[in-house]
Design a protein that fits this description.
Elements: E1 5-12, H1 18-28, H2 46-51, E2 58-66, E3 69-77, H3 85-93, E4 97-103, H4 110-121, E5 125-131, H5 140-151, E6 159-160, H6 169-179, E7 192-201, E8 205-214, E9 217-218, E10 222-225, E11 230-233, E12 236-240, E13 244-246, E14 249-250, E15 255-259, E16 273-276, E17 297-303, H7 309-322, E18 327-333, E19 337-344, H8 347-361, E20 365-367, E21 371-372, E22 375-379, E23 382-400, H9 404-413, E24 417-423, E25 427-435, H10 443-450, E26 456-466, E27 469-476, E28 479-480, E29 486-489, H11 490-507, E30 515-521, E31 524-531, H12 547-567, H13 574-581
Parallel strand pairs: 1-3, 1-4, 4-5, 5-6
Antiparallel strand pairs: 2-3, 7-8, 7-16, 8-15, 9-14, 10-11, 10-16, 12-13, 12-15, 17-19, 17-20, 17-21, 18-19, 22-23, 23-25, 23-26, 24-25, 27-28, 27-29, 27-30, 30-31
């Protein structure tokens, strides 16, 4: 029955207990037998488990009996990190309600607010829940006041739980049934289903995650994917339990999966409407889709062994089947050879992909200097010139009140302009207009360091603004090491180039010839270091003789080394390059 279905998501900041609460739901509803239960059960990805964070939305269908009546609870667990906010927005569009989970020891943080606003935008009913009330450091009353003050909840609406011990989780399940609305939609209308996610299965093809908004769908039906105008037959459908459980049909209000045998995931767009193949009436309206996530940070990606290039290409192709936010194009480095320019949503996304490539494909890769998405435009004042534009963001920082001063100092030193500053019960919220490139320049780690880990960040891309950028190049014996090139603000470029030169000198081994390392900014040499060669004693076997013979040998050695400098291939050991490049990906 449609009236006995509840579709909801758990939204929260990172590490506030989403996955643990999902585990308790699975236990209480007996969806997963106790002997098969494991922590973070819905996080099937080993990287998620190891890091203790959710990086992919995960749906599950649960059955719960209340007052002798059976209810179907469709939960979609969501990521909490800002890099994966697009996963949250897709999830919320498939639900009618959400649980807003807040840690009693940490209170409201960046993604708490961001996800709350997204849920409001989708007009979802929200249940406020305070978690970890069993901990000695819990500030339950203070956090309760924060929820009332920041979001306008009534105090009696808030439910206090411990997801770890299971305390009051049964009360939360009852509140989900009693408070939350039933799914919208009409059973007698033409089929309309929202594809909120899709994954690629090597054997069965594309598995579409679908929320049925109107009508119903049965095995054997012919369906149409509206945007791509592709027809196919349903070979299998069913529910997430949490593994795929086949069924005969999916009806209005239900969440499940549909397999049609389509092998190309690009033909099954996330956000598309799945419908019947009947002639469309003029009144038929497809469901609102999603914005395609746009990569904002780019790395050069190269295999450490050049023979692995084809395998890396194949690995990236497979990863993009299940990660629509990942993009790549081929590029060539005169030093590293063939590789790819790969786009990511953020630094954490880049780290996750790097780990997946190593873990799933046993490939060692090298990531070069990160760059954000710059644009070139004609200078309005001088049409013959081009100007460089860089993306700006509205950075929001949540921190305890006593850290406001140090936070402001860092943000101002990173080209930030203060937009707003608000004080609440126990925390402050600062908003800055700032270049997005500050993420790859380490602002996140700086803010967390100066606040002893208490600061949390959220950002929203706003616009592009003119930037005074220059190119830094590093040369060894006049050969440009292209993978060490990057764009930098003019005022910082000379200092950064000189530091690169110093670091490269420390890491390069001596050779049979002299190595001259130069830092070049906009074509001008601004830093120079020299590594002297090994000297071979060519006079060692001469015990005596005419001085002219010795001078002749030394002159021949000098000419030979000159030829060696001009002809020798510059070789930077992998260890030296790694030392310079591995620090580029920083934790957010």
């Amino acid at each position: 029955m449609q009236s006995n279905i509840r579709n909801f998501a758990i939204i929260a900041h990172v590490d506030h207990g989403k996955s643990t609460l999902a585990d308790r739901f699975l236990e209480i509803t007996k969806t997963v037998p106790k002997e098969k239960m494991a922590e973070q059960f819905l996080d099937q990805n080993p990287i998620s488990r190891r890091r203790g964070i959710t990086i992919k939305l995960a749906p599950v269908r649960m059955k719960y009996i209340l007052n002798s009546e059976l209810y179907i609870l469709n939960l979609i667990d969501t990521p909490g990190h800002v890099d994966f906010s697009y996963e949250v927005s897709r999830t919320l569009a498939a639900c009618e309600e959400a649980i807003l989970l807040v840690d009693a020891t940490q209170g409201i943080q960046a993604q708490t607010v961001a996800h709350f606003r997204e849920a409001q935008k989708e007009k979802l009913y929200i249940i406020p829940v305070i978690n970890k009330i069993d901990l000695e450091s819990a500030r339950t009353e203070i956090v309760s006041k924060e929820l009332v003050e920041a979001f306008g909840f009534k105090k009696e609406e808030i439910i206090y739980i411990s997801a770890k011990t299971g305390k009051n989780v049964d009360l939360l399940l009852e509140a989900i049934i009693r408070r939350l609305p039933t799914p919208k939609g009409e059973t007698d209308k033409a089929l309309r289903g929202l594809i909120f996610d899709a994954v690629y299965d090597e054997f069965r093809g594309v598995v579409a995650y679908v929320r049925i908004v109107d009508g119903q769908i049965e095995k054997g039906d012919r369906v149409r994917f509206y945007q791509n105008n592709i027809e196919s037959e349903v070979t299998e459908l069913g529910y997430f339990s949490p593994h795929l459980l086949p069924a005969d049909e999916l009806s209005t209000g239900e969440i499940g999966y549909v397999i049609t045998g389509i092998k190309d995931i690009r033909k099954v767009r996330v956000g598309d409407t799945i419908t019947g193949t009947q002639n469309y009436e003029e009144t038929f309206k497809p469901l609102p889709g999603y914005k395609i996530p746009k990569p904002m940070i780019f790395f050069g990606m190269y295999p450490k062994a050049t023979s692995d290039y084809a395998y890396l290409k194949e690995s990236l192709a497979k990863l993009t089947l299940n990660d629509t936010a990942l993009t790549y194009t081929e590029e060539y480095s005169s030093y590293l050879g063939s590789g790819f320019r790969v786009g990511f949503l953020g630094l954490l996304h880049a780290q996750i992909i790097k780990e997946r490539i190593k873990q799933e494909f046993n490939l060692e890769i090298l990531l070069t200097m990160p760059q954000v998405l710059y644009k070139k435009e004609e200078d309005p004042a001088d049409g013959s010139k081009q100007i460089m534009l860089e993306p700006y963001m509205r950075l929001t920082v949540y921190c305890p009140k006593n850290y406001v001063g140090p936070i402001m100092n860092i943000c101002q030193s990173r080209k930030g302009s203060l937009i707003d500053l608000n004080y609440h019960e126990s925390y402050a919220v600062l908003s800055y207009d700032m270049p997005f490139s500050m993420f790859i320049r380490g602002i996140s780690s700086e803010l967390k360091s100066v606040s002893n880990g208490f600061a949390s960040l959220d950002y929203k891309l706003t616009s592009y603004k003119e930037a005074d950028l220059v190119k830094i190049e590093i040369k060894v014996n006049d050969v440009t090491i292209d993978v060490l090139s990057e764009l930098e603000y003019r005022e910082n470029a000379i200092n950064k180039a000189q530091k690169k030169v110093e670091r490269l000198k420390k890491s390069l081994p001596r050779q049979q010839f002299r190595q001259i390392i130069q830092g070049v900014v906009n074509g001008n040499i601004v830093g120079r270091e020299e590594i002297p060669p090994f000297r071979k004693d060519v006079l060692a076997k001469m015990s005596g003789g005419d001085r002219r013979r010795k001078d002749k040998l030394l002159e021949a050695q000098k000419k030979g080394k000159s030829r060696l400098i001009s002809k020798a291939k510059i070789s930077i050991p992998q260890e030296s390059l790694l030392e310079l490049l591995e620090g580029n990906i920083r934790e957010l």
